[in-house]
Amino acid sequence: MNTLANFLPQHLQQHNLPAELGNVLETVTAACCAINNKVRLGALAGVLGMAGTGNVQGEDQKKLDVIANDILIEALKNNPNVGGLASEEEDSFVACHENGGYLVLFDPLDGSSNIDVNISVGTIFSILAKPEGTLTTESFLQKGRNQVAAGYVLYGPQTQLVLTLKHGVFVFTLNEQGEFVETQSQPKIAAATQEFAVNMSNQRHWQPPVQQYIAELLAGKEGVRGKNYNMRWVASMVAEIHRILMRGGVFMYPQDKRDPSKPGKLRLMYEANPMSLILEQAGGAASNAHQAMLDIQPEGLHQRVAVFMGSSEEVAYINNLHQND
Ligand code: AHG
Ligand code: MN
Ligand code: MN
Fold first, then answer.
1. Would you say the CB of residue 110 lies under 6 angstroms from ligand 1?
2. Is the CB of 236 under 6 A from ligand 1?
3. Which residues pair with 104 in a beta bridge?
4. What gap in Å lies between CA 79 and CA 238, rounded to an integer?
5. Binding-site residue positions
6. Cβ distance 222 to 279 under 8 Å?
7. Which atom from ligand 1 is nearest to the alpha carbon of 111?
8. Measuring from atom 3 of ligand 1, which residue has the nearest CA?
9. Dist CA 243 CA 264 (whole Å)
10. For residues 34 and 39, what is the distance between their CA atoms, to the nearest angstrom?
11. From start to end of 254-322, where are the E strands?
12. Is the C-alpha dihedral spanning 196, 199, 200, 205 positive or negative?
């Protein structure tokens, strides 16, 4: 059984990657272990409920959103290899060490609507190389393709770390000693699937191509797709993407007609991009229905984006339906 502590130096050496990147990943994953301890205790640690504050995106913060954010920031600020960080819960980026070579972007706690009802939540992270020169917002606005590593930690029935350094995807499970132990290597997502994930309550607000797509899936065997589809919606992206990594499926959060200034709900930099890198590395696909997610040129730290990701046949089918849109 390989622990993360053994895996990282081996993997870095095998692929000629810098030790400093491994060091940043050690800090991120150690912070996630600390977050895990809080999540696990819930009411016993007094961490449930609202924080009584809001973030820059106008969302109410839960206590655990704030605690997870503080744990990650504190840990990353203490790592000299971290040049700067950006978080869902911070208005703008936080500068760390002038000579730090890496930028860490994260959603400290994803799926916060599930915290108080004891349903899986997670942490999502994306790592970029810091460009030369003074750190500005532009330093972070790199295409997803530029990520040097990405991952998530799922605080579910088991606590699991899923990690990619662009040489496949690796899955680790937290053991009783607090070590991540490799439990699966290189999972692959089947191109075809019969399972989709979408918040159906938004149906009336979707654009016509998404309306058509979901109608086709719901028509099942009798419809043009010629097979029955099952649906799942946890409302935690980490749980959803983990299910897709394990057994296939397609996950969507389409653009909503209600607010044209918001092209979707999910955020490009610390939700869509890291998940897209993981899925692509596992043979899946990800797009905003018009272009590959990882090729989008970001324009803002908290930019929102329409999301279609998972089994490659479904993502291609969705892209095709949007061709004349
Ligand atoms: P966050 O808790 O970080 O704000 O993200 C929640 C996201 C994502 O995890 C999930 O897929 C989606 O919001 C759920 O949205 P609905 O509440 O509209 O179902
Ligand atoms: Mn989120
Ligand atoms: Mn969040």
1. yes
2. yes
3. 85, 127
4. 26
5. 88, 107, 109-113, 199, 265, 271
6. no
7. 2
8. 110
9. 22
10. 9
11. 285-287, 307-310
12. negative
What are the residue ranges of CATH 3.40.190.80 in the chain?
A: 195-323
Q: Measured between alpha carbons, how far is residue 125 from residues 109, 184, 214, 236, 259 in Å? A: 10, 20, 30, 15, 27
What does each C-alpha distance from 252 to 92, 98, 218, 285, 297 come to in angstroms? 27, 38, 15, 12, 20
How many residues comprise the chain? 325
Q: Is the pTM of this model over 0.90?
A: yes
Q: Whose Cα sits closest to atom 17 in ligand 1?
A: 235
Count the helix, strand and coil residues of the chain and give each as a percent rounded to the nearest 5: 40, 25, 35
Determine the distance separating the centroid of ligand 2 and the alpha carbon of 280, expressed in angstroms. Answer: 19
What mean pLDDT is reported for the chain? Answer: 97
Q: How would residue 34 be classed by pLDDT, with cut points 50, 70 and 90?
A: very high
Residue 259 pLDDT grade (very low, low, confident, very high; cuts 50, 70, 90)? confident
* CATH level 2 (architecture), domain 195-323: 3-Layer(aba) Sandwich (3.40)
Segment (H or E) for 219: helix 208-219
Pick the CATH number of 4-185 from 3.30.540.10, 3.30.1330.40, 3.30.1390.10, 1.10.3720.10: 3.30.540.10
